[in-house]
Amino acid sequence: MGQLDTLFAPERVAVVGATESEGSVGRAVMENLLDGYEGDVVAVNPSSETVFGLDCHDSIADVGGVDLAIVVVPPQIVNGVLEEAGEAGVRDVAVITAGFGEAGSEGAARERDMKAIAEDHDLNLVGPNCLGVLSTRRNMNATFSPKSAIEGNISFMSQSGAFITAVLDWASDHNVGFNDVVSLGNKAVLDEGDFIDYWGEDPETDVILGYLEDIENGRDFIDTAREVTKDTPIVAVKSGRTEAGASAAASHTGAIAGSERAYEAGLEQAGVLRATSVQELFDYATILEDQPMPENDQIAIVTNAGGPGVMSTDAIGDSGLEMATLTDETLEALEADMPDGANIYNPVDVLGDAPSERYEQALDVVLQDPNVGSVVVVACPTAVLSFEKLAETVTDKFEEYGVPMAASLMGGDSAQQANEILGEAGIPSYFDPARGVNGLDALREYAEIREHEYAEPRDFDVDRERAREILERTKERDTNKLGVEAMELLEAYGIPTPQGAIVSDKNAAVEAAKDIPGNVVMKIVSPDILHKSDIGGVEVSVPDDEVASTYDDLIARARNYQPDATILGVQVQEMADLDAGTETIVGINRDPQFGPLVMFGLGGIFVEVLEDATFRVAPVSEPEAEEMIDEIDSAPLLRGARGREPVDEAGVVETIQRISKLVTDFPAILELDINPLVATPDGVVAVDIRATVDQEEL
Amino acid sequence: MGQLDTLFAPERVAVVGATESEGSVGRAVMENLLDGYEGDVVAVNPSSETVFGLDCHDSIADVGGVDLAIVVVPPQIVNGVLEEAGEAGVRDVAVITAGFGEAGSEGAARERDMKAIAEDHDLNLVGPNCLGVLSTRRNMNATFSPKSAIEGNISFMSQSGAFITAVLDWASDHNVGFNDVVSLGNKAVLDEGDFIDYWGEDPETDVILGYLEDIENGRDFIDTAREVTKDTPIVAVKSGRTEAGASAAASHTGAIAGSERAYEAGLEQAGVLRATSVQELFDYATILEDQPMPENDQIAIVTNAGGPGVMSTDAIGDSGLEMATLTDETLEALEADMPDGANIYNPVDVLGDAPSERYEQALDVVLQDPNVGSVVVVACPTAVLSFEKLAETVTDKFEEYGVPMAASLMGGDSAQQANEILGEAGIPSYFDPARGVNGLDALREYAEIREHEYAEPRDFDVDRERAREILERTKERDTNKLGVEAMELLEAYGIPTPQGAIVSDKNAAVEAAKDIPGNVVMKIVSPDILHKSDIGGVEVSVPDDEVASTYDDLIARARNYQPDATILGVQVQEMADLDAGTETIVGINRDPQFGPLVMFGLGGIFVEVLEDATFRVAPVSEPEAEEMIDEIDSAPLLRGARGREPVDEAGVVETIQRISKLVTDFPAILELDINPLVATPDGVVAVDIRATVDQEEL
């Protein structure tokens, strides 16, 4: 692609609003650019003759060959500048100025105009309301952050400008370097998806880091990120994680599927490693930047003390890593090399009297063990161990064997120089062994993401036209709710429903019941009556000779309960064999960022009381639907726990996919619940449905 | 108490095994003691004339007035030295020498002798197999750690000596000071409970810190810790927390640690704050050492940037703290003081152009808000903010208002001096705001522990003699298992059981059935047949006229299934109304460290499939039994979820306590399960029981 090359590595940068005025943003940006940027800086400001010795231009239109314009003029005149820049052939712009979407209706209008101008002139526009852009490619700090960055291969985007200033201040002192840094601001034009896309193709970027407060176009983000993470890890803090979802949707799905559920599902489906704190964000970034992929999930500990070995093992127990089982060859070699009393099993304890040479012997053996995917080296200070020599040994072995490693040199200042040696080699080293283990666990997780094969959603032969007709029927009504009358919608999408019919007179009810073997279930059908059972609107196990009288009873009860209700008739339905089956729920609601979110769980108490449910952004592929079943705690109940016969899991998996297709095909469906979808050993059947549609979307 | 005063602050210390020999432990201890200890050092070693210029004594018996003896002689002669020391009137001893319980059967025998000698001479003995003892009271480093400690009010015990060397190395460089430090070693005599007891009374100790791999005498530990935590917080890392960690710990110490479930329950019942990593251990210790208790659980954030404010809010969402709702007065005052655009709601955003004076204005208001229990101050670097001035402001306000505070100055070296100012005032400050929030959350948790009222276990009027008789019956059998025949055990302890009887002939069965209204349940009674239903050994809903034939059938099936089984007869029982009730399980098993551990959960899938169970170390008080119900996820099912009628929760709570009393009264009961205990709106009934007894304990 390279589409943003000139944004991050421009040959000529113009600062529109350049000034020497003390304390101004325009001054800070000029100072930063003039401090080492390997390219031309052009100052634009009609009210100045010169800025920092540079001739000032009246307008960007007067300057030729500008790759990147940094705009710091007052908000009222930003759009005029953008027009001029676009006409002058500038393609890359960062608007630092605030006073747009974040600033009331006037600002929002300005931002709309900005988008239109950007589209007209094909502008790659960063911001507005941002800190600017920084890149070490040409040593350019086009931000108003007082600190710049040292070189590295992490590219970082942030929805908080202040957080960038904090990170830059901290990073240089901790030897963390960056390639590109961008402050996303209001994301009027370029958003996280654009930068992921670009950095995914960029050979200078080894890790993509994000601080995100929201994600635009969730589904596109997922699709882009999936491609990118095959080669380049993406680590993100998504803030606002714990805020209770604001959605007050009526259905069960809505009730527990706040938007954090969507982010959680969406970021996982996107293959994004999620950090929950700033510390994790950079711990993950630095290990991913420098280390190879582990060959497997097993990890070995080499330590000179038992206690810290156990602490490290606990950290491994908390992670997705497993304690490596050393091969017999490894054990024999350790037995031969290590002194009496050393523990040759994992954690390998080289004992408190070990100098770095003994660590070296142990590492030479352990790092060649095919069962060992990564190693953490733990050391307490002793009279005979030099931390610096140990750091050099670990560095050598890391380079020799290419096995991921972390260290924990458990000291204060005495470990500092050794930690620097390790840090330069890309080996994280912290006092607390749990932190290094946590980093290696992120590496494992990324290795898994990298290997992950994403399946395309299955295509099913469905009757889309029929489904549309059923949805459009709601237009003739006062309500946007659908009830059992929408069972046909499921039929149109190939989801099994009980045999039955909706009838609107007594005789038709009797006829319908005749076609159904055994007794029937009869339910009132009215979009205005959602809780049918509560008003006596459902009768089960009705024998054929009571169908006519039951019909009259149901209609009478409904009229009595709500005289003005629209009554569409009565559903006469086959009895589902609930005893032989397990009730499940498949539902969807629509997230503002990610679109349709599919929920799966077990019916009855499981979703409602135990909140045992799982979510995916649609469309859901077959492996994803299978994973959904794996993820719920109550899955064993579908799989033969306590002597039950296992249910038709494939039927559940297929229903999830068909619902996913239905709601992807019809954005008008805002919410939909199949509750219950009864799963039996012989198949599944959708017994009841509720849905809400957006009639304007039809 | 002061019983260990002379251990930590002796006036005269003798080193038995003192030497100048290079690389020896005896030399290291001598060097450390001679480096600043404010007391007399005496060297004991029959093979030397002088050590470091001190006259060497042949035996400790030759020296008078020794408060503390440090023993570093070879293991074979340690016990001899202890005898001499005891006879010479020494009361406090630390045995550094290894080669005892951890070293095979010979070592174990040596350790047994050591215990006997210690008992004879009333020795306060630390170790063996330890690093020694250190205290800043008299600036004494009687360990072989190369680093000593700076003064402070944390007292620290560790089951890993190496971890002490690591912590001492790290702590001085991080301005963390200690009062006493002790390496527990094999805990032949003094264990964690003794030190907790002592430090709990010690005015110099503000926080007790522990690294523990196991706990001796779990129940005593709970009772001691509960008393101590009223005044002095106890923070512990219990390693071997995870399955992987537990097996590593077992091979390290040889200790059979109890189950993690027992430790989890026990440490919580003891009021110990549990840290899961080294970082947490010291983050908690430092904040607890220096800060006052929060008045409430609400926390306010004052920040100069929105993004980091949101991150801090997320950290609060992960914690037990709540975002403070500021009072109207606070909001009005902030509205008046803060510039336009500032967010006056929590998180309070003083904006990016805020100098420390604006923070001061905001803090003056927020810290006086009665809804604010603690405050975290967050700052990103800006051109107008001096971190040092902010640190001074925060320090002043902390001292002025006495409200717990943490800070996050988000910078690198630029924040270092400010962090030192804060650190000296006892205000933790980390780059990652989540860490400070986590510390304040520990403070909140300790405030809760401090306020906690521990109830005495209720005493019940029970028939202990009858219970003993039933248990003793097992002595006549080949098995130590009890089945339904032990329902009487429950009756003896006042736990409701269905009406019924165990009969050993057909006619008695018919008579028994007559006394019971309605149909009956009949079950084979045999200690050899545990899975009665599987062999057709249970018949439900038997009408009176089929009781005789059913009796014969049950006996025949049992004989057929297992010809040599001891058959005690048939139980004729009232039908429990399972439909109206919810099946629960109350069980106990016995943990090697903590003794009887009581479990509670719902029957059926809940414990077995969903693992939804909770545990307490017995004896269980009434409030603890109530908490057990609160803790299970499925509790709403007992409380009227989904239209059920709430069950008799008080009955469940009482049953838990009665079982707790039963197993406390009879250590011979190794395991016992009431499954199910059916809970209905009108009461509870124990429908079945299984137990295992240790006949030798009876």
UniProtKB/TrEMBL annotation, chains A, B:
<keyword id="KW-0436">Ligase</keyword>
<keyword id="KW-0067">ATP-binding</keyword>
<dbReference type="InterPro" id="IPR016102">
    <property type="entry name" value="Succinyl-CoA_synth-like"/>
</dbReference>
<dbReference type="Pfam" id="PF19045">
    <property type="entry name" value="Ligase_CoA_2"/>
</dbReference>
<dbReference type="InterPro" id="IPR051538">
    <property type="entry name" value="Acyl-CoA_Synth/Transferase"/>
</dbReference>
<dbReference type="GO" id="GO:0046872">
    <property type="term" value="F:metal ion binding"/>
</dbReference>
<dbReference type="Pfam" id="PF13380">
    <property type="entry name" value="CoA_binding_2"/>
</dbReference>
<dbReference type="InterPro" id="IPR036291">
    <property type="entry name" value="NAD(P)-bd_dom_sf"/>
</dbReference>
<keyword id="KW-0547">Nucleotide-binding</keyword>
<dbReference type="InterPro" id="IPR003781">
    <property type="entry name" value="CoA-bd"/>
</dbReference>
<feature type="domain" description="ATP-grasp">
    <location>
        <begin position="487"/>
        <end position="523"/>
    </location>
</feature>
<protein>
    <recommendedName>
        <fullName>acetate--CoA ligase (ADP-forming)</fullName>
        <ecNumber>6.2.1.13</ecNumber>
    </recommendedName>
</protein>
<dbReference type="GO" id="GO:0005524">
    <property type="term" value="F:ATP binding"/>
</dbReference>
<dbReference type="InterPro" id="IPR043938">
    <property type="entry name" value="Ligase_CoA_dom"/>
</dbReference>
<dbReference type="Pfam" id="PF13549">
    <property type="entry name" value="ATP-grasp_5"/>
</dbReference>
<dbReference type="Pfam" id="PF13607">
    <property type="entry name" value="Succ_CoA_lig"/>
</dbReference>
<dbReference type="InterPro" id="IPR013815">
    <property type="entry name" value="ATP_grasp_subdomain_1"/>
</dbReference>
<dbReference type="InterPro" id="IPR011761">
    <property type="entry name" value="ATP-grasp"/>
</dbReference>
<dbReference type="InterPro" id="IPR032875">
    <property type="entry name" value="Succ_CoA_lig_flav_dom"/>
</dbReference>
<dbReference type="GO" id="GO:0043758">
    <property type="term" value="F:acetate-CoA ligase (ADP-forming) activity"/>
</dbReference>
